[in-house]
Amino acid sequence: MSGLELRNIVKNFGAVEVIRDVSLHVNDGEFVAFVGPSGCGKSTLLRLIAGLDKPTGGSIAIDGKDVTAISAADRGLAMVFQSYALYPHMSVRENLAFGLENTKVAKAEIEARITDAARMLEIEPFLQRRPGQLSGGQRQRVAIGRAIVRRPDAFLLDEPLSNLDAELRVSMRAELAALHARLKATMIYVTHDQVEAMTLADRIVVLRSGRIEQVGTPLELYNKPANRFVAGFIGAPH
Ligand code: ADP
Ligand code: MG
After folding, report:
1. Which keywords belong to this entry (predicted)?
2. What is the mean pLDDT of the chain?
3. Nearest Cα to 152, choosing from 49, 236, 16?
4. Whose atoms come closest to the Cα of 40: which ligand?
5. Distance 161 CA to ligand 2 centre (A)
């Protein structure tokens, strides 16, 4: 089976059950948003998918292959964080190339990918600058660029726009939509911003206390929320 399959995922931190029996299938190329209040487990679930953390129970498969025990680097996914996580002492170009340099990817191919991503994200003029010399929006573009140059099968984005001001957030939202249309890669997008989820996602996963409350298209959630919690969160008049 193609796509990403989560089966009965459980994650405990000590005695606390943070993810409780989450099962979900994400199709190839789909844009899925994880929404829910702060502390409901969105980041934890994304880190489990990324392989940055191991589930206490359940399994994760990518294209039918069980990857539960496979390291993050070998899953073919790329993560983009809210805090950019760029190396301050490196130029933008070096930040983009980092992690690709000692792989099978040839030098010329790395250069071509950097040029391509920089053009797509309109960060070409800044390639020689350090992250400290960039605005928040430019830094976030570099962080996204670093994911793009890896040519991942899926992008995992954890509140990538939440540090940006409102105006920039709206324009970056449009850029992300364009990027998804162009790359046709799977995107799993964590946000606590319902509007972002409603405008960007093919399907929305509503989480509450580590459980899935409802999964559906923005329209389904809006028209037929499963309960008051979903209705309240999505903002439908109920
Ligand atoms: P969200 O991203 O939805 O805000 P998180 O996934 O970050 O939520 O956190 C879910 C819950 O798990 C929270 O109660 C948080 O305190 C707890 N948690 C997250 N990471 C750890 C950790 N490394 N150790 C202990 N508890 C954690
Ligand atoms: Mg989080």
Report:
1. ATP-binding, Cell inner membrane, Cell membrane, Membrane, Nucleotide-binding, Sugar transport, Transport
2. 92
3. 49
4. 1
5. 12
